[in-house]
Amino acid sequence: MKKIVSVWLVVVFGLITLLVACGEKSQEDVIKKLDDKVSSMDGYKTKAKMKMNTGQDSQTYQIDVWHKKKEYYRVALKNDQDKKGNQIILKNKDGVFVLTPALDKSFKFQTDWPDNSSQPYLFKSLVNDIKEDTDATFKVSDSNYIFQTKTNYQSNNNLPYQEIYFDKKTYAPKLVKVLDKDKNPLVEVKFSGFDMKPNLQEKDFAMDNNMSSGTAEAPVSGDKNQNSDTEKQTDANKTKTESFKVALPLEMAGAELSEQKEVETANGKRVIMTYTGEKNFTLIEQQAEVEQTLAAPQEVRGDIVNLGHSIGALSDSAIQWNNDGMNFYLASEDLTKEELIDVAKSVQGKAVK
Q1: Which of 3, 156, 183, 267 is the most buried (most CB within 10 A)?
Q2: Rounded-to-integer distance, Cα 153 and Cα 160, Å
């Protein structure tokens, strides 16, 4: 009798296991569902918190992402360490821009962003990375579908993998971990809320509407802050009264500082540092000047790169960015793009002048 009961229990348990297994979606099923979501959505809104440990210091961003089909994007990044350095990556019918609203600074890119590289906070980019990686791994937890895939960072080989978590009910992204070569997480993006039916208009992606707010907060359509120019100029004047601080690179690619010149300009002091050695480069720093009127964007033929402390504009032999109320320009005919990024990321050490 005991033997019959034991056999019966084994059979029942096997049937339950089979039924549970049949209830789970396969990797192919989940990829198809994700792809269908990307194709069918008119857009989305989501918020995320991004922690980065890719530079000398850990950085935390609060991210607000808006997307309107097909090619309208607004990614507002608020750096917890630099309140004046809030930036917006904007894509609309006029092109791709990086805005620093508090300074009325903007770059216009000749680029196919966001399709030219992995973007850990964009839904379509995550799904595309999964589809492109034939070696992607897949597993299921109680509440998530989890993929591990290769990344596609054109100018950074130090982050080759990512782990992506999607909610099993909604298929919305919940968590992305970008991993180094040893599978250690260096970037973590944690999503909070994912609205797949937002009410977004083209004007929400207009550059002047986003710049006029003076911050990286969400713009209010038709609401112009009449005091913003005065407030910006006041902030600029305060900056000029503070001590000029030179930021030094901690990563120097085998070079050493051989010359440092200070030049007085109409907009304040400019410091030019020349580094020579195995690979030569020049670093120029100047206090950022708030524009009195909305200036035409500075055009860049290159890529948008996240430096940890700020968003930079990378071309073949130079990279430029704004951080902590300063303009930075790093140029070299010797450094590779990846080395330019590494040096730029490390420009955080301060020496008071």
Answers
A1: 156
A2: 8
Could you tell me the two tokens for 66?
């808006």
Residues 294-311 have pLDDT tens digits of: 567 888 888 999 888 889
Residue 13 has pLDDT above 60, yes or no: no
Q: Which phi and psi angles does 119 have, rounded to 5°?
A: -130, 105
How many CB atoms neighbour CB 280 within 10 A? 17
pLDDT, tens only, 189-200:
999 989 999 999
3-class SS of residue 300: strand
Quote the pLDDT of residue 37. Answer: 95
Q: 238-352 adopts what CATH topology?
A: Phosphorylase Kinase; domain 1 (3.30.200)
27-195 and 238-352 share one fold: no
Could you tell me the two tokens for 212? 């006029």
Annotated domain spans of the chain: 27-195, 238-352
Take residue 218 and report the two structure tokens written for it: 């969400």
Residue type at position 291: E
CATH code matching the domain that covers 27-195, chosen among 3.50.50.60, 3.40.800.20, 2.40.10.340, 2.50.20.10: 2.50.20.10
Per-residue pLDDT band at 104 (split at 50, 70, 90)? confident
Contact criterion met (CB below 8 Å) for 147 and 175: no
Long-range contacts (CB closer than 8 Å, 24 or more residues apart) made by 291-296: 291/103, 291/104, 291/105, 292/229, 292/233, 293/104, 294/104, 294/208, 294/211, 294/212, 295/104, 295/105, 295/106
- Does the pTM surpass 0.85? The reply is no
pLDDT for residue 156: 76
Which residues partner with 105 through β-bridges? 100
